[in-house]
Amino acid sequence: QVQLVESGGGLVQAGGSLRLSCAASGGTFSIYTMGWFRQAPGKARELVSHINWSGGTTYYADSVKDRFTISRDNAKNTMYLQMDSLKPDDTAVYYCAAARLSTVVRGLYDYWGQGTQVTVSS
């Protein structure tokens, strides 16, 4: 059983930056594809980015390409999301999740964190 804990959310002005972290425990972190999802009020949870077990393959939603960077440190059992040039539309609760295969399908992610709030003011 993998436990995931997000941190790093907060309030930032448009154009600013935040770095989210996801710390994993209770499993073999390095075998999982890790993903960042977000859910804004009244909207469905959507995939923002994911990274494969080695960090060699990444995926980004079109809405965050060239602004967000996903990375992982398997030695520290931690994944990161560097968010730059933030926009009010990025306001959401951000969740990290783990999957046994590289996928964009939300339902195939087996483990989820509790989420961290990101609020971008205009």
Order of helices and strands: EEEEEEEEEEE
Q: Please give the share of residues in helix.
A: under 10%
Estimated radius of gyration: 13 Å
Strand content: over 45%
Structure description:
With 122 residues, this protein is mainly beta. 0% of the residues lie in helices and 52% in strands. The chain is built from no helices and eleven strands. Strands 2, 4, 5, 6, 9, 10 and 11 form a seven-stranded mixed sheet that branches. Strands 1-3-8-7 form a four-stranded antiparallel sheet, with no helix packed on it. The N and C termini lie far apart (40 Å).
Write the layout of secondary structure elements.
Elements: E1 3-7, E2 10-13, E3 18-25, E4 33-39, E5 46-51, E6 58-60, E7 68-73, E8 78-83, E9 92-99, E10 109-112, E11 116-121
Parallel strand pairs: 2-11
Antiparallel strand pairs: 1-3, 3-8, 4-5, 4-9, 5-6, 7-8, 9-10, 9-11
Question: What are the main properties of this structure?
Answer:
122 residues, seven-stranded mixed beta sheet, single chain
In short:
The chain is 0% helix and 52% strand.
